[in-house]
């Protein structure tokens, strides 16, 4: 028998530009008021995207509130239909509220460094914060919530399949919020989806998976296509990606420099970050923290000139430029081995010509479009089938993945690198 607090009336409302007034009850407000959650006000949702789309300055804070709101609407509906427990609606709302609490500063830019160096993802950081941050854990415990259970929902590891699906699947509340929110702030119309139709028709099949009736298939199709276009125009935009690579390179050099490392401590290693969480200091690590260090380096002439030049490039928006791009779609191998090998050989060839190592950066990424494991299901005569297996949907004709292969060059060497790359790949790529 569960004993945790099952919710209460709103004690405060926050106006959201996407969903209108979002009510917060007592436990939700206490979580929001912690220094750890307030930190999300100082982390942009789309990190470097504002270098391309000036309006993209919205934060993880507003997105997290939006995800909680959608979870509340959907979970309450499912509970009313007796598809999930009423007692767990508050658990799901708290998991939604905290799902991004472990994001690094500059989001995927700095995370790119920690992934490459330590295989550390923000999902793991979120789990540690929920379980070990004294501010968050104490509020959860005060209201009878087990931090590990909240973290399990966030990580997609809860014993109830539908709880994981609501927060971590192809059609989850996280994506439903960020597609619309990011489209609003970037001005890109491709992210528009029929949110009301999806929310009102979303249900659960006999096996506990998220599903929709056949009448809502078009709304789900639009969701998949909108996400694909947002990948291309925003999330993996060639210029936005260049600044993500640049901030990752700067963070790497800062973390590994004997002269500059102290400026970032304790946020240079997995142990350092986890210690900061346990000591209640994680909330200091935000976009302002990193931005302040970069300005301090420039104002005090710290580090060697080549490093300061990288910082200057980032601060003044004169970053790496793309000299080669390849995009492909596939159900098996979106970036063929021949493409990967040719790009790596081309980069080494250019470096052998005397171009400094960090003046040319390869970038290879595989982006899931339709996940066979996480795809939404369609109800058919009481049973259900994955939308990828439903003959009446165009989703089963979409590729499973999109592959991107690029080469970026320092603006000082852009012209010469571009010529060398073009000449080399003309004879090397055999695809």
Secondary-structure element series: EEHHHHHHHHHHHEEHHHHHEHEEEEH
Kindly state the number of beta strands: 9
Distance between the termini: 60 Å
- Round the mean pLDDT to the nearest integer and report it: 93
**Total of helices:** 18
Helix proportion range: 40-55%
CATH superfamily of the domain at 1-187 and 237-318: Hypothetical protein af1432
Q: If strands are numbered along the chain, what order do they take across the biggest sheet?
A: 3-4-7-8
- Major beta sheet summary: 4 strands, mixed
Strand content: 5-15%
CATH names the topology of the domain at 1-187 and 237-318 as Hypothetical protein af1432
Which CATH class of the domain at 1-187 and 237-318?
Answer: Mainly Alpha
Please state the overall shape, judged from the principal axes of the Cα atoms: globular
Radius of gyration: 23 Å
Contiguous uncertain segments of 5+ residues: none
CATH-level-2 architecture of the domain at 1-187 and 237-318: Orthogonal Bundle
**Protein structure class:** alpha+beta
């Amino acid at each position: 028998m569960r004993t945790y607090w099952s919710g209460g009336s709103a004690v405060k409302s926050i106006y959201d530009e996407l969903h209108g007034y979002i009510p917060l009850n007592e436990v939700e407000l206490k979580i929001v008021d912690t220094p750890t959650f307030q930190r999300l006000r100082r982390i942009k949702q789309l990190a470097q995207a504002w270098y391309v789309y000036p309006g993209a300055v919205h934060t993880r804070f507003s997105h997290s509130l939006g995800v909680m709101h959608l979870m509340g609407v959907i979970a309450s509906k499912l509970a009313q239909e007796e598809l999930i427990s009423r007692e767990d609606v508050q658990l799901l709302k708290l998991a939604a509220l905290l799902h991004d609490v472990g994001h690094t500063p500059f989001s995927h830019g700095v995370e790119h460094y920690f992934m490459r160096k330590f295989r550390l993802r923000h999902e793991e950081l979120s789990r540690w914060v929920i379980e070990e941050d004294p501010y968050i854990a104490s509020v959860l415990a005060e209201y009878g919530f087990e931090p590990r259970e909240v973290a399990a929902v966030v990580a997609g590891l809860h014993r109830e399949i539908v709880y994981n699906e609501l927060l971590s699947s192809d059609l989850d509340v996280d994506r439903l919020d960020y597609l619309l929110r990011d489209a609003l702030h970037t001005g890109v119309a491709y992210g528009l989806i029929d949110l009301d139709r999806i929310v009102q028709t979303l249900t659960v099949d006999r096996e506990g998976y998220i599903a929709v009736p056949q009448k809502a298939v078009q709304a789900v199709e639009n969701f998949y296509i909108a996400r694909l276009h947002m990948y291309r125009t925003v999330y993996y935009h060639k210029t936005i990606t260049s600044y993500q690579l640049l901030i990752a390179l700067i963070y790497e050099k800062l973390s590994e420099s004997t002269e500059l490392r102290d400026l970032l401590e304790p946020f240079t290693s997995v142990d350092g970050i986890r210690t900061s969480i346990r000591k209640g200091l994680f909330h200091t690590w935000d976009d302002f923290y990193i931005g302040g260090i970069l300005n301090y380096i420039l104002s005090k002439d710290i580090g060697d000139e080549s490093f300061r030049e990288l910082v200057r490039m980032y601060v003044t928006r004169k970053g790496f430029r793309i000299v080669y791009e390849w995009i492909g779609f596939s159900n098996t191998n979106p970036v063929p081995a021949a493409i990967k090998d040719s790009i790596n050989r081309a980069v080494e060839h250019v470096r052998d010509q005397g171009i400094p190592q960090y003046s040319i950066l390869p970038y290879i990424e595989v982006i899931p479009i339709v996940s066979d494991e996480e795809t939404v299901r369609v109800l058919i005569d009481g049973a259900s089938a994955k939308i990828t297996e439903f003959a009446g949907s165009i989703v089963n004709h979409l590729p499973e993945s999109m592959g991107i292969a690029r080469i970026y060059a320092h603006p000082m060497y852009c012209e010469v690198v571009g010529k060398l790359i073009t000449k080399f790949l003309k004879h090397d790529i055999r695809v």
